[in-house]
Amino acid sequence: MSQTDVIYLDSWALPDFELERQGWGIPPRESWQVDRKFRQIHAARKSSTLFKRFNRHYLAISRHRGRRELPEQVIDLAFVEAEAREVRDFKARLWLLAACLLTIPVAFTGLMPVAPLWMLPPVLIAVALVAVALRLRKHHYEFRALNSDVVVFTVDAGVPAKEDAEAFVRDLSLSIADAQRVLPAGKQRIPVAVAEMRRLAEQGIISKDDYEAIKRNWFRS
User: Fold this and answer.
1) How far from the centroid of its chain's Cα atoms is residue 201's Cα?
2) For 34, which DSSP code?
3) Is the model's pLDDT at 1 over the cut of 70?
């Protein structure tokens, strides 16, 4: 591939359409009007997440890990896929292994007399596996960057309650669909989308590699 075959999308613009277009980007904080709040607290993990939707089309995410406050993430919902992807992983293999271990004492007791002390190890291992399965299980909703499979943020599906989380996800999907109505049509959407993805990468919300992958997707679309 020659140098002339390479297109640097960061510096590419359509006629009369600048990459950093006025009217796009995150509004100044003093103009924020918060219209929806949703907090998720994980006591076992000693963590909490506060979602604040403001000006209908933006989302600020504040997270705490123990006493440490993580950097706030601010996302323009116009550049997020409206349909959230539900992810379920209840670690079924760990549960199955724990169940098998619990049947060992029962099986040996039925076949021959076994001292209770010999039945203790498999039971303890099974209990430990159940604890690990409960800790590692996942059930959440993933919101991906527009025109990509890159996850921008997630919402836990069961905190504080399943119904509350589902209602919040529905509200976000409606806000996203509403925000995308004002996006430029066709190829004019590419520069503003690339600019927003670059901002997310610069702020550490997505990785540099994810940004490059998203940029390629937009160029191919």
Assistant:
1) 15
2) E
3) no
d(CA 215, CA 196): 11
Tens of pLDDT, residue by residue over 123-168, are: 777 777 677 656 666 789 999 999 999 999 999 998 888 899 999 9
Select from 147, 133, 152 the least CA-distant residue to 89.
Answer: 133
Alpha-helix residue ranges (DSSP H) falling in the chain: 92-111, 116-136, 162-179, 189-202, 208-220
The H or E element containing residue 143 is strand 138-144
Indicate the Cα dihedral angle 116, 117, 119, 122, nearest 10°.
160
Contacts of 128 (CB under 8 A, 6+ apart): none
136-to-14, 92, 95 alpha-carbon distances in Å: 47, 11, 12
The rounded radius of gyration (Å) of the Cα atoms in the chain is 24
- Residue pair 62/49 in contact (Cβ under 8 Å)? The answer is yes
- Does the CA dihedral 75-76-80-84 come out positive or negative? positive
Give me the residue spans of the domains in the chain.
3-81+168-220, 92-135
